[in-house]
Amino acid sequence: MPLDSVTVSALAEELRAELVGAKIDKVQQPERDTILLSLRGPGGNVRLAICGGVGNARVHITAASYENPAQPPMFCMLLPVVFSIRYYSFTLTLGIAAITTVVFAITTYWGAATQFTPVDLNLVEEGANYASDVMVYSFLPKWLIFVLIAGVCAQRAKCGRAMVFEQARISHEHSRVETELQTASQIQLHALPVASELTDGKDACFDLATSIIPAKEVGGDFYDFFYIDPTHLALVIADVSGKGIPAAMFMMRAETLIKSLVQTDEMSLDKIMYTVNNELCTNNDAQMFVTCWCGILDIKTGRVDFVNAGHNIPIVKRKRGKFEEIKVEKNFVLAGLENIPFRLESINLKPGDEIFIYTDGVTEATNKAKQLYGMNRLLRFMNGYKYRTSNDMIKGIMSQLDSFQKDAEQADDITMLMIRYKPR
């Protein structure tokens, strides 16, 4: 029987009586045998499509239910996905997103199928399509938003994983470089001579002590001492411009040249420095230079012939005098300019006299207030310090520098060499 206005009115009244608090919002009849009925209530909306006559009317629910069955909040879907980012796994995040989708789809469908109570007017078919409508009109939009956010989270996890691996690689590389630098530092320090090897077990004509503390793992300072023959002892101390590996490599080149030429004993010291300078200027694209003090002590006479190539002026103490700088002029640095002459100087030591040679890391040590240790402070300490051996004095100076610098970072290599002449 066709659905006329009388039939619709009767159905509407019955629905309104059944759905307490609901109001008929709209009635439409797009076709002769179909009526679209919309009801609005405190819990939600119902949209009914009534087809055919009253005797065999069928209702199809195409929107949200009147009772709005409980559905999981969207943030509950997002929490597992968002938390999975911390594991930096693209696959894990997508897997959790897929599992979450399935779980929440089942939960939503179950809620729609079990919590909806159809209106008992003999108008709603048993097993009406409400649950599928909820999935289409309620869950699907949420799911599309969820997929978008899950994709962003998965991509973030992927980027995070790449970043973690890169950080691990950098950390491993840094650790490897640190290990290599420590090894290089040990090799460099072990390559330096030890004063005790020159004096222990021998009736030596001198008391010799040295110390070197690089500012970094490897440094550009070096010292050396060795016998040229039984009566002549060579003393060398130098400071390469810069710090770190480049300075250390240039230092080794300078040290090798100086020692090989001095040991041949075929040229005077000024000629040796002239030759070394020209060799160091060759292929010096980094434009590094070396300050160097090189002297030869005649053990029998106490005469010291030396060349000062731009280095700190040595400090001398006579047996009954005080520590003071030698009054000599400096030559130019090594590797600065080719074919420059070097002036040979000499000083005569008497028994008990001492020479202290050092690099600028001593006088230019800096504290947190950016104050330099300075020459005046060094001389004042040396002249007031009570000591017995050269080693005692060097340890005292190091202790004084440590107290002066305190927690300030060491800015330069610190190298010292001290010798006391005491002929038999």
Could you explain how this protein is built, in words?
- Helix content is 43%, strand content 22%.
- By secondary structure, the chain is an alpha+beta fold.
- It has a five-stranded antiparallel sheet with strand order 5-14-13-10-11. The protein has a five-stranded antiparallel sheet with strand order 6-7-8-9-12, with helices on one face. Strands 1-2-3-4 form a four-stranded antiparallel sheet, covered by helices on one side.
- Helix 2 (74-84) runs antiparallel to helix 3 (90-115).
Which stretches of 5+ consecutive residues score pLDDT under 50?
A: 52-70, 115-128
Percent strand? 15-25%
Which shape, going by the Cα principal axes? elongated
Number of helices: 10
Biggest sheet strand line-up: 5-14-13-10-11
Note the gap between the termini: 140 Å
Structural class: alpha+beta
* Major sheet summary line: 5 strands, antiparallel
Written as H for each helix and E for each strand, in order along the chain, the element string is HEEEEHHHHEEEHHEEEEEEHHHE
What value does the Rg take, in angstroms?
46 Å
Give the beta-strand count.
14
How much is the average pLDDT?
77
- Indicate the percent of residues in helices: 40-55%
